[in-house]
Amino acid sequence: MSVLIVDDNDMTRETLRVILRHDGYNVIGEALDGDAALEMATRLKPDIILLDVVMPKVSGIEALKSIRMVMQDVFVLMVTASTDQEVVSEAVKSGISGYIIKPFNAKKVLDTVGNVVGKVRANRKQKPAQT
């Protein structure tokens, strides 16, 4: 499974990268902000995007809306320290597949990503192969 990590915090990106790679995920890219997230998601076409909510330039919620316009089938997990119901509600309306609350640990990340992997595989089985 290919994963794009989007977070403005170097340590968060590194931690997620180490956790995911250790468990066999293919981290195909990392972005620092919402603008880069949209560009990289469109170019790299990941199976899963881990997307921070609060970032400079373009927020994770705004980036998610833009990503959804061009990639309806990508699975997006929001990574956030916020438990604000308004933020969570906006993310759900924008089409998240789940979320990871900061601070997180390896088990939480792998459990959440693992749940989405099942959805990715089921989604692939439902789609006819393109020739």
Automatic annotation (TrEMBL):
A matching Pfam family: Response_reg
- Please give the name of this protein: Response regulator
PROSITE patterns assigned to the protein according to its UniProt record, in alphabetical order: RESPONSE_REGULATORY (PS50110)
PANTHER family the UniProt entry points to: RESPONSE REGULATORY DOMAIN-CONTAINING PROTEIN, STRESS RESPONSE REGULATOR PROTEIN 1
Species name for this entry?
Undibacterium baiyunense
Where does the Response regulatory domain lie? 2-117
**UniProt cross-references to Gene3D superfamilies, sorted A to Z:** 3.40.50.2300
Species lineage: Bacteria, Pseudomonadati, Pseudomonadota, Betaproteobacteria, Burkholderiales
Q: Which InterPro entries match?
A: Bact_response_regulator, CheY-like_superfamily, Sig_transdc_resp-reg_receiver
Q: Which UniProt keywords apply?
A: Phosphoprotein
Q: Which residues carry this modification: 4-aspartylphosphate?
A: 52
One GO term under biological process is: phosphorelay signal transduction system
SMART domains in alphabetical order:
REC
